[in-house]
Design goal:
CATH superfamily of the largest domain: Type I PLP-dependent aspartate aminotransferase-like (Major domain)
CATH class of the largest domain: Alpha Beta
Shape: globular
Oligomer: single chain
Largest sheet: 7 strands, mixed
Strand content: 15-25%
Number of helices: 15
Strand order of the largest sheet: 4-10-9-8-7-5-6
Number of domains: 2
CATH architecture of the largest domain: 3-Layer(aba) Sandwich
Distance between the termini: 39 Å
Number of strands: 15
CATH topology of the largest domain: Aspartate Aminotransferase, domain 2
Length: about 450
């Protein structure tokens, strides 16, 4: 329970207009040295003091509803007692021992393997998502006997290291050139179809183009397709279910591997432990991270049992991956997800929020689309009903106004991303949607837009 909650008994509780004087002072000091902040910090530079459950408190004493979860990481909420206690236990016991086995690592691996889909049970552990994706791609090259050509989609986000970045859409000179063998194909984004077609009449021509990209851009070294099952950075882009079976067929026909990047969508975020389970899909390789450690840095990739030999050959170990504290955090998080029926909560609260969002769409002409699964949701702002023209200025204003009124969340220009902890309650969710509703109403008035 935060100090602000104890004092006033209400959430959110904005005591002083944020960012307050203490936030400004601390941020200015840090910014003299820290460079390259994310856009959400640049837009609203509050400085955080503490978090508890589904709320966060800044250094000025303001308490907010958390609809960001530390950018999808705090799956069990801030400082869940069981997760925190396990981290404390191992911080006093054993911090690092390279990749040697520890009892807590064994228990974590066994628990994780029991939850992975199908025969996927060959695992290696890391700290961050980019690191896990890079290692997964390295394993793919080993499995495919040195074949190195990988195919992804426009708008995908796989990381900020060389190969992961080369399979992502980033869009400025800092991120080129792409690594050899990395190719991107048009995304099956039905709300903003790159071919201006309508689903299902389109027949998923984007999948035909993926086949053409693989066959014509490839040089005989085609190894895998890697994709986010729901795009995160690009605004919670959700695809028709049949996309996944089509890609699986495309890969099988060409003896390529299907790699799913579940760094963001895994660990219950979409209402299943792994998003691929929503579509009856068992990939060849899966990456995971963010929510698996309850906020502590833990990531991994895993392969089908028939490919686990490749991890022995791919130099898969890493300095900090699988350290005792990380494994303790991961084990505790997975136990909490099971013991507290977190997936049931994700589905119930996610459905409730989505219902509220569809009502927002009915009532506001600038809400062009609402989408998502479970507690991975988004509001897409447009320049009027019936259009999908991105309303970037409105997105920035709605984000800042809602944040000022006590909602900590994630912007993406015209797209506002909603990713609360998986422990979010309907009561707090309703308050959050009320704040968003009010912010959108104010922005429509500012731009003189009729609802």
């Amino acid at each position: 329970m935060t100090a602000a909650f104890k004092k006033s008994g209400k959430i959110p509780d904005i005591l002083i207009t944020p960012p307050g004087p203490k936030s400004k002072s601390w941020h200015e000091r840090a910014a003299r040295h820290m460079k390259g902040y994310s856009n959400q910090v640049k837009q609203f530079p509050v400085v955080w003091e503490s978090g508890q459950g589904n709320t966060m408190t800044d250094v000025d004493g303001n308490t907010y509803i958390d609809f960001s979860a530390g950018i999808y990481c705090n799956s069990t909420g801030h400082c869940h007692p069981k997760v925190s206690e396990k981290i404390k236990e191992y911080s006093d016991k054993l911090m690092n021992c390279h990749d040697f086995t520890t009892p807590v690592k064994t228990l974590f691996l066994e628990k994780l393997a029991s939850l992975l889909p199908g025969s996927i049970n060959g695992i290696q552990l890391y700290c961050g998502g980019s690191e896990a994706v890079e290692a997964a791609l390295r394993a793919v090259r080993v499995i495919k006997g040195g074949k190195y050509e990988m195919f992804s989609f426009w708008g995908d986000w796989h990381g900020k290291t060389m190969a992961s970045m080369s399979l992502s859409s980033l869009g400025n000179e800092a991120f080129g050139p792409r690594a050899a063998g990395c190719h991107l194909s048009p995304t099956p984004n039905c709300f903003r179809c790159p071919f201006k077609l309508k689903y299902p009449e389109c027949g998923l021509v984007c999948m035909d183009i993926l086949e053409g990209t693989i066959d014509n851009e490839g040089t005989g070294m085609q190894a895998a397709v890697i994709m986010e099952l729901i795009q995160g950075y690009s605004g919670t882009v959700v695809y028709p279910d049949e996309v996944y079976s089509r890609i699986s067929e495309i890969c099988k026909k060409r003896e390529m591997l299907f790699v799913v990047d579940e760094i963001l969508t895994g660990m219950g975020r979409t209402g299943k432990m792994f998003c691929c389970e929503n579509f009856g899909l068992v990939p060849d390789v899966i990456t995971l991270g963010k929510g698996v450690g309850g906020g502590f840095p833990v990531s991994a990739f895993a392969v089908k049992e028939e490919y686990d030999w490749a991890l022995e050959k791919a130099s898969a170990s890493t300095t900090y991956g699988g350290n005792p504290i990380a494994c303790a955090a991961g084990l505790a998080t997975l136990e909490v997800i099971e013991e507290e029926n977190i997936l049931e909560n994700v589905n119930a609260v996610g459905a409730h929020i989505k219902k509220r969002l569809f009502k927002l769409k009915e009532n506001h002409s600038i809400v062009g689309d609402v989408r998502g699964r479970g507690l991975l949701l988004a509001i897409d702002l447009v320049k009027g009903r019936g259009t999908n023209e991105a309303f970037v200025e409105a997105g920035k204003m709605v984000y800042e106004k809602a944040f000022s009124n006590g909602l900590a969340w994630i912007p993406a220009e015209n797209i506002l991303r909603l990713a609360p902890p998986l422990t979010m309650t309907e009561e707090l969710a309703d308050k959050a949607i009320d704040i968003i509703d009010e912010a959108i109403t104010e922005v429509e008035k500012y731009f003189k837009i009729s609802t």
